[in-house]
Specification:
The protein is α+β, with helices and mostly antiparallel strands and 112 residues long. 21% of the residues lie in helices and 42% in strands. It is globular and about 40 Å long.
Length: 112
């Protein structure tokens, strides 16, 4: 992917270039597809959705970026749904291409 996808939700601006998700706002953050997971929960009975981006290995997340969007905010967000789908595809592609996982056992660290 060579094109950058952008979205705005609330006060934050999001960009994704196929590898790096960047969040610009009061606390800018960067997440790499090989070191993150994405969850979109909802809508609940009022239409609210929660989006979580977690960085770090699945068993020991290092940081998390969570935001909550009302039904109206979700509808009014510019490009958010397409950006989230692109991030999911980027994460899946990174996992399919054999990202090595470091495991520590009795024998010491090993890449599997």
């Amino acid at each position: 992917m060579t094109d950058e996808i952008t979205a705005r939700a609330g006060r934050e601006f999001y960009t994704f270039d196929g590898r790096i998700l960047e969040v610009f706002g009061s606390h800018p953050r960067r997440f790499h597809v090989r070191n993150m997971d994405l969850r979109v929960m909802g809508p609940d009975r009022k239409g609210k959705r929660t989006v979580e981006v977690v960085s770090g290995p699945p068993g020991a997340p290092a940081s998390q970026h969570t935001w909550h969007l009302s039904a109206e905010e979700w509808q009014q967000s510019q490009g958010l749904e397409a950006l989230l789908e692109a991030v999911r595809a980027g994460i899946a592609s990174a996992r399919e291409n054999g990202v090595p996982v470091l495991r520590i056992g009795r024998e010491g660290p090993a890449v599997r």
